[in-house]
Amino acid sequence: MYTYFGLHPGEYALNETQFLGWSQTYPTTAGNYVIQLGTDEHISDINFGNHLIPLTITSSASENGQIAPSGVINVNYGSTRQFFITAHTGYYIENVFVDGNNVGAVTSYEFSNITESHAISATFAPYTYTISAIAGEHGIISPAGNATVIFGSQYSVTIIPAAGYRVDRSL
Predict the structure, then answer these.
(1) By the 8 A CB rule, do 61 and 115 touch?
(2) What is the pTM of this model?
(3) What is the pLDDT of residues 112-130, one digit of tens each?
(4) Residues 96/121, Cβ–Cβ less than 8 Å
(5) Which of 19, 127, 132, 141 registers the highest number of CB atoms within 10 A of its CB?
């Protein structure tokens, strides 16, 4: 709302200019507007209603990791905001998506000169390991061959030496 003091009666032109990052609620378009002011007249019900356009960045992470800050973050038009992505122990950053586009397995992402709302999300996956179970001569191991196991899980094998032999070592 604009307030002017000490104006003499007459006709006054207001020029409303639209600026980036601001929303004009009344009138709905930028331009020139004429206000008639009579003797001892006071006009107080004209509100051009300019306000900053509210912008947000919504961030989220799947299980086994986090993104900070998280949730719905309010940001100002033209500002910069950085996000940090970390995986829990035994997991790695699988993908980071910005506005639905995969930007890779990055540990941080910065939005700069923000002019619209955005979204950022991260997914995480467990580290996996291959266990090779191979018996030497004079014994068996079960199950034999390669097995893929996930970090933190257990995997058991049975080692049976042939008669008259013992297990020398297990690597």
Answers:
(1) no
(2) 0.65
(3) 999 899 999 999 999 999 9
(4) yes
(5) 141
